[in-house]
């Protein structure tokens, strides 16, 4: 297990509202394991970025996951950007996204993609403010106990 496993678990517990929205289940050790092991089809887990944002006191307040080459060569796909429920609305998401975009550009990506749940209206508003536009909507996306409409969005880098 990665060294930051317990910190990631603590963060998931502080962001349980999103986990419940997505899966209909409370965060678990399996949720943490999936963060460290998951990547989109056809992408290389070893080439993906699993990043954390820490406060000066060492508290993990956000995590992100970005894969490369999905859905197309030259794409950077942000699979997760999750913030502590108590830290949302403070600009941390924008700062983290800027870091992710810089990494994507440095790796030669020409566009950045995300997927947002239809129910996650606050999340979709964030992505739209950051310049992401709808590419397609995917019905019947299953996550845990729930089925969603997922909106795939993109922006050029």
Automatic annotation (TrEMBL):
Matching Pfam families: Acetyltransf_1 (PF00583)
Keyword vocabulary terms for this entry: Transferase
PROSITE patterns: GNAT (PS51186)
InterPro entries listed in its UniProt record: Acyl_CoA_acyltransferase, GNAT_dom
N-acetyltransferase domain segment(s): 1-156
Highest taxon of the lineage: Bacteria
GO molecular function: acyltransferase activity, transferring groups other than amino-acyl groups
Entry protein name: Acetyltransferase (GNAT) family
Record organism: Aminobacter aminovorans (Chelatobacter heintzii)
């Amino acid at each position: 297990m990665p060294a930051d496993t317990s910190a990631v678990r603590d963060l998931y517990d502080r962001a349980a509202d999103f986990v419940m929205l997505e899966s209909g289940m409370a965060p678990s050790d399996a949720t943490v394991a999936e963060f460290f092991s998951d990547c989109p089809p056809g992408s290389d887990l070893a080439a993906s970025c699993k990043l954390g944002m820490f406060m000066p006191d060492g508290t993990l307040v956000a995590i992100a996951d970005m894969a490369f080459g999905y859905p197309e060569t030259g794409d950077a796909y942000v699979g997760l950007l999750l913030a502590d429920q108590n830290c949302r609305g403070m600009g941390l998401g924008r700062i983290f996204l800027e870091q992710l975009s810089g990494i994507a550009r440095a790796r030669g990506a020409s566009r950045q993609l995300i997927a947002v749940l239809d129910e996650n209206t606050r999340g979709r508003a964030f992505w739209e403010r950051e310049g992401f536009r709808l590419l397609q909507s995917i019905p019947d996306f299953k996550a845990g106990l729930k089925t969603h409409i997922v909106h795939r969005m993109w922006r050029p880098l």
